[in-house]
Design brief:
Layout lengths: L8 H26 L3 H28 L16 H13 L1 H5 L12 H9 L3 H20 L10 E3 L2 E3 L1 H25 L9
Helix pairs in contact: 2-6, 2-7, 3-5, 3-6, 3-7
Length: 197
C-alpha cells in the first residue's frame, strides 16, 4: 500500500488495525519468551543457588570476623544492629527465599512483624552463626527439592504473577544489599572483610 495515496476511512481503519495486531503479536511473543521454560528455569535455579553459595560464604566469614561484643553495635538508634542484620539475613533464608520459588517457608520464624522482630532480636554472635547456617541449609533443600514444573512459567508469588527470573533477581539483590551493609558496619568497627586481605 503506497503511502503517497490518500487512504479512505475504511482503508485507514484496516491499516491501523493491522499495525495494532502486529504490535500485539510482538508483545505477546516477547512476553512468552520472558516466561522460563523447564530448561531455563532449571538453569536459573542453578545460577541463583550458586550466587547464594557465594554470598553465604561471605556472610559466614564476616560473622566470624566480627567480635561478639560488636554484635550489638548499631549506626544510629532505631537501625538494626550488626547481629540483627545477620539474623535478618537468616530470616530471609528461612522465609522469603524459599517463598520466592514457591517453596514452603520454615516454621522457625513465626508469622507477622512481631515474630520477625522477636527472631531478629536474638542476635548474639552464636545465634547469628547458628541461624545463618541452618537457615541457608533449609532454603537450599527447599529450593533444590522443587520439581522443575513448579518453577516453570509464572506463578502467584507475593500476591502477583511472577517468574522465578524476577523473584531470583529481587532476592539476590536484597541479599547483596545486606552484605554491603554488613561490610560497611564491619569497617566502621575496624574489621576488614577476610576476603579483602
Amino acid at each position: 500500500m503506497p503511502f503517497d495515496r490518500p487512504l479512505t476511512a475504511l482503508r485507514r481503519s484496516a491499516y491501523v488495525t493491522a499495525i495494532a495486531l502486529s504490535c500485539m503479536s510482538v508483545a505477546f511473543t516477547a512476553r512468552a519468551q520472558a516466561v522460563p521454560t523447564r530448561e531455563s528455569a532449571i538453569e536459573m535455579r542453578v545460577r541463583f543457588l550458586k550466587d547464594l553459595d557465594s554470598l553465604q560464604s561471605r556472610f559466614l566469614a564476616l560473622a566470624e570476623a566480627i567480635p561478639a561484643e560488636k554484635y550489638s553495635w548499631r549506626p544510629a538508634p532505631g537501625v538494626r544492629s550488626i547481629g540483627e542484620v545477620f539474623m535478618h539475613v537468616a530470616s530471609e533464608y528461612y522465609v522469603y527465599t524459599p517463598l520466592s520459588y514457591g517453596a514452603a517457608r520454615s516454621p522457625v520464624v513465626g508469622r507477622g512483624q512481631e515474630a520477625f522482630q522477636k527472631f531478629e532480636s536474638q542476635s548474639t554472635k552464636a545465634d547469628a552463626q547458628k541461624h545463618l547456617q541452618e537457615g541457608f541449609a533449609y532454603m537450599k533443600q527447599a529450593v533444590e527439592g522443587l520439581d522443575p514444573a513448579a518453577i516453570t512459567g509464572t506463578q502467584k508469588l507475593f500476591g502477583r504473577d511472577a517468574t522465578i527470573l524476577e523473584t531470583s533477581l529481587v532476592m539476590s539483590g536484597d541479599l547483596h544489599e545486606h552484605l554491603g551493609q554488613l561490610i560497611a558496619y564491619a569497617r566502621m568497627n575496624g574489621v576488614k572483610p577476610p576476603w579483602s586481605r
